[in-house]
Write a structure and sequence with these properties.
Blueprint lengths: L1 E3 L2 H13 L4 E6 L5 H13 L2 E6 L19 H10 L4 E3 L3 H4 L18 H4 L3 H16 L3 E5 L3 H13 L5 E5 L19 H6 L1 H15 L5 H13 L4 E10 L11 E11 L2 E11 L1
This protein binds pantoate.
Pantoate binds next to strand 2 and helix 6.
Length: 282
């Protein structure tokens, strides 16, 4: 496994893989890898000849006062995990290489980024779509893998790839959860043991929503009310949003039908956590 830090070195390797006719699978990450990331790597390993993992904490997707400085970085441990999974290459560039002085180009998906996380994190998705476009151009993947835990990100990236005629397939893999249901996230490491308990409100409230839908409830406001009741019981949890939305365009649904995305963001102490489920409304 190669650990590549510079763009010229990366381009040389990508050119060689392309020349040999091999397919490239890319797992874009910000590092501090967990089983969620590794499930994407495993999918890539089973489908592609050459698997690359990018590890880059992208400064332009963090807002002022967010956790860019504190985001966990541990390339040695990440490299060990990648090696065990048979990854061929880790690309871990510097900020200077990704955004040299005078950098001035951004990619923006407009409508899909306005609601949900986009409301509380202005500029976040513009940062994500910009860095992912750069990573696609640099690594030339045939397939790129993302997690369903970041449901809005997944939809935004799919829209970007379709609108810009990008020549690759995006695969969205299921959320991986801890035994008690907490969605895996690099940010879970910020949680104290008490906060870790509180963090279960995300999963519990999603379960309650699903239960209500399966029991015949079709009213968005009623379901949101029941979810809020669970979250408001926890003094350490501060709700940012709950959204029940169309799974394709993220428009809010009051009358539930077909298939719905139920997504929420909750701050537990200082840690912002997100989670979601998709429920079939029969
Ligand atoms: O989901 C993430 O880890 C990041 O948003 C991504 C896609 C790697 C872009 O920095």
């Amino acid at each position: 496994m190669k650990i590549v830090r510079t763009i010229p070195e990366l381009k040389k390797i990508v050119r060689e893989v392309r020349k040999s006719g091999g397919t490239i699978g890319l797992v874009p990450t910000m590092g501090h890898l967990h089983q969620g990331h590794l499930s994407l790597v495993k999918a890539g390993r089973s489908e592609c000849d050459f698997v690359a993992v990018s590890i880059y904490v992208n400064p332009i997707q963090f807002g002022a006062g967010e956790d860019f400085e504190h985001y966990p970085r541990d390339l040695t441990t990440d490299a060990g995990l990648c090696r065990e999974e048979g990854v061929d290459l880790i690309f871990s560039p510097s900020d200077r290489d990704m955004y040299p002085q005078g950098y001035d180009t951004y990619v923006l998906v407009e409508k899909l980024t306005r609601g949900l996380c986009g409301r509380g994190r202005p500029g976040h998705f513009r940062g994500v779509t910009t860095v992912v476009t750069k990573l696609f151009n640099l690594l030339e993947p045939d397939t790129a893998y993302f997690g369903q835990k970041d449901a809005q990100q997944a939809l935004v990236l799919k829209k970007m790839a379709a609108d810009l005629n990008m020549n690759l397939t995006l695969k969205i893999m299921p959320t991986v959860r801890e035994a008690d249901g907490l969605a895996m996230s690099s940010r879970n490491t910020y949680l104290s043991s008490e906060e870790r308990e509180t963090a279960l409100v995300l999963y519990k409230s999603l379960n309650r929503a699903e239960e209500l839908i399966l029991g015949g409830c079709r009213k968005g406001s009623k379901i949101i009310g029941a979810m809020e009741a669970i979250i408001f019981r926890e003094p350490m949890a501060k709700l940012e949003y709950i959204e029940i939305a169309d799974t394709t365009n993220l428009e809010t649904l009051e009358e539930l039908k077909d298939e719905v995305l139920i997504a929420l963001a909750v701050k537990v102490g200082k840690t912002r956590l997100i989670d979601n489920i998709i429920v079939e409304v029969l």
